Amino acid sequence: MDEQMSRGDVDQRDRTLARRVGGVLCVVLGAGMLLLFFWPRGEDVRLLMLNLWSLAKSWGLPEQVSPEAFAVVANGFVFVLLAFALTLLVRRISPWGWGLSGFALGGAIEFVQLVAMDARVPEVMDIAANGLGGMVGAALGAWALHSSARDSKACE
């Protein structure tokens, strides 16, 4: 039976899918962030990043990318995914609000590492990577929402 979907049905389906994707990403990333960013031994995190860097090199990462640069980009990438997921999940806050929250959350993480974690070394570069990652993720989330809305209108 071929029934034509109304605009409301398409919009509701898109919202439900966006919330599910956003929710799953938020849970997984939240757990991962808690473990990585607040792990008490910085050396463990550094070794994990070195192993990931070695794996990425075996997959074709250019020789010029140092382990330190890789760690900064990986740090920012987590915030790309988080801001993307939050932009899809919580639409009451503008995408740019989620993007800017990357700077705030990054600063808070580094502050906690400075004040409460002797074995961790906070870095300003991490705050910048987190903030830029948040902005990129929010922009991608806004684009995905805009594309979804445009596709919904095309179904009318």
Q: What do you see in this structure?
A:
It is a single chain. The protein is mainly alpha-helical. It has one domain (9-154). Helix content is 79%, strand content 0%. Helix 4 packs antiparallel against helix 5 (124-154). It is globular and about 45 Å long.
Task: Briefly say what this structure is.
By secondary structure, the protein is mainly α. Helix content is 79%, strand content 0%. It has one domain (9-154).
Write the layout of secondary structure elements.
Blueprint: H1 7-37, H2 42-58, H3 67-89, H4 95-116, H5 124-154
Helix pairs in contact: 1-3, 1-5, 3-4, 3-5, 4-5
Brief descriptors of the model:
156 residues, mainly alpha, 5 helices, globular
Q: What share of the residues lie within helices? A: over 70%
* Structural class by SSE content: mainly alpha
| DSSP summary, beta strand count | 0
The N- and C-terminal alpha carbons lie at a distance of: 19 Å
Q: What's the domain count?
A: 1
What Rg do the Cα atoms give? Answer: 19 Å
